[in-house]
Amino acid sequence: MIFLFETIKLGLTNLHLHLLRSFLTALGIILGVAAVIAMVSLGEGSKRQALLQIEQLGAKNIILRSQRPAESQSNQKKTSNNWISRYGLRRDDLDVISSNFPDADAIVPLKEVGSKMSRAELSRTSQAFGTTPAFADVAKLRIARGRFLNDSDLDSQAMVCVIGSEVARQLFKFDDPLGDTLRIDSKAFTVVGVLAPVGLAGGAGSALVGRDLNLDVHIPITTARSVMGDMVFRGSGGSFQNSQVEVSEIYVASPDRERVLPDSKRLKRIIDARHTESADVSMIVPYELLENAKKSQLTWNLVLGFIAGISLLVGGIGIMNIMLATVTERTREIGIRRALGATRKAILYQFLVETSVLSTGGGLLGVALGIGSSWFIQWIAPRLPQMPIVGQYFSQSVSLPTYVTLGSVILAFSVAVAVGLIFGIYPARRAAAQDPIVALRHD
Prior knowledge:
53% helix, 14 helices, 16 strands
């Protein structure tokens, strides 16, 4: 025990005598560990953000959507300057799906209505949908104020609506939306609820849904059918496109996640059999996207870790080079110690202690730098657009989420220590193998 303590003390003393050189030797390990932690945290942060956005679509949901087919496949009729296009899901499709999935948690239709939403002098292109009260649970919508649609609204075909957070911000600005009136085309609806921000705007979830859910307005589907009808008008440049779509979307909520993929295959067979002439229905399976995203991100993390790990290898080579130079520089010291009775094992342990301290200390400093860098990247990213000169090169919505995992810290630190020891063995063995007589003659 005394021998080991003295060896450690001697090794630390030698490193302290050349403090700057010791730090520069460990710098490769420090930067290597920091790079591994920072890069893996970037990959993990992006993965978690994407998975959260996909999860918000509902991991047990299967989403069927009416989509405009290619012109050669579409059922279009021209009247004057107007085009009428009939495509997509129908009400009898909804009936067939309901009869084939009796154990589904919910089967919720959405029907797009209107062409313009307005309040006073403010207006925007419509993004209004008729739906049922179950949609809030299926789509994981949260109410910020007021309430969502209820069964009474459906039964009475009430002229009420629930608006997204962005609709409230854009059309109502500083006024209280609750109880106020919102017009969809020429029809007036009373606002009974405001949704909390969904958090999908501009993200993976928004790309999957095809729209910003914060701009959605929900009305009872019975009102949408009886008051608004099936026709949706869009106009531009003097010509109008009239779309006749009975059902815009259908959300099918499976009983559990294990049923999602089999149910999605059954749904695809049903839709393919009923829509043989044109590809006017698409399917989104968030759970499938979730699993694919996890696999893709795991591969990406491995690639990032491998690239960053190269710097650890370089750091290990740096330690070996410096220790080899140190062996040459301290040849006479080794000879004197051997002449005074030090064994080869004592010399070997002394040099291994020095490389262990360099790699362990460098690893700890690297962990601190990596965690700090990850935090700094996440903090600085949203502020880049406001910075002078460089701000013009960044989007206002730029974000670089990071998430430091315990596994990446342990792995990076362990590899750093292992690399230091492995690359320190050869210089230590070379020092221990010195002939004391030859070493004493060395200048």
